[in-house]
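Q: Could you predict the 3D structure of Putative mRNA 3-end processing factor?
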Amino acid sequence: MESILPDFLVKRQEGYYCRYGDFFIDPSLPVHRAVVSHAHADHASPGHDLIYCTPPTAAFMRYRYPRQPMDSFLQFSYRQAFDIGGVTLYFVAAGHMLGSAQIVMEYKGIRYLFTGDYKLQDDDTCEPLEVVQADVLITESTFADPQIAHPDPVTEIRKINDQSHHMLLGAYALGKAQRITSLINRYCPGRRVLVHHGILPLHRLYASLGITQLNYEPYNRREMKTSDAHHIYLVPPMTFNSYYRATNVIRVFASGWKHLQRSNDMDLYISDHVDWKDILNYVVQVNPREIWTVHGNGEHLVKHFAGYISVRALSGE
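A: Sure. Here are the predicted structure tokens for Putative mRNA 3-end processing factor:
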């Protein structure tokens, strides 16, 4: 059996670095070669010479970073293999948002799987998670805590039906806002979704990429003042926070984080990340020899798999 290279991926100031292929994964500072898992700003930054990503990720990055040269994007479909410095890579769907990818890296007979952000829950606004077995699972651990269990999103969204007021609904503009719109359309059919101007272009970009089922309208102030219907005004976080004194509306923020629910009028726990049970489920499916953790505290995973699978936080150089 081939040996796992403990330094195959290391943590640097710029991001996660693979010395064997001389590339970074989701770097936050400009680098020569950036392999980008998905288009959220904490993973996809501008200024790189070359950006390896899926076509939807390239589309979102071009929208957000118009100064990034077009020819810097090297786009690959899921399962389309490419080589960087002798390392063979390909993307598989992560289920986190449209175009999100897990990054499979194969080198000298060992397969390393970098999950990026991922989820197992159903979401008709993005590609479903694809399972790949690997020797090393490099998993996000944002919610890797036995005390955290994400509720069923359908049950959560249906709570809106019990409210008899207009709603100011905060959601991250890319990924979450489109998922929330779709859930409301399907499970709260009596509600009209009015979309903030900061979210509208991303809804339209989703449509251009094939997500055409979303039913929404641009925000109309007059409609939010009517009393004979109960509309939902979907806004990005900064707008939501600036409306803390809004009257005659229910304030709700869609998130898996408990601290983002404290000052709201109703809890709405909808997360686009795996929770504790989902991570354990995924480990069984991937069947790795080792687990490396990123983006969070992996100490609970270390304890859970002690004596069974080696678990460690991805270390720096």
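Q: Anything worth pointing out?
A: The mean pLDDT is 94.
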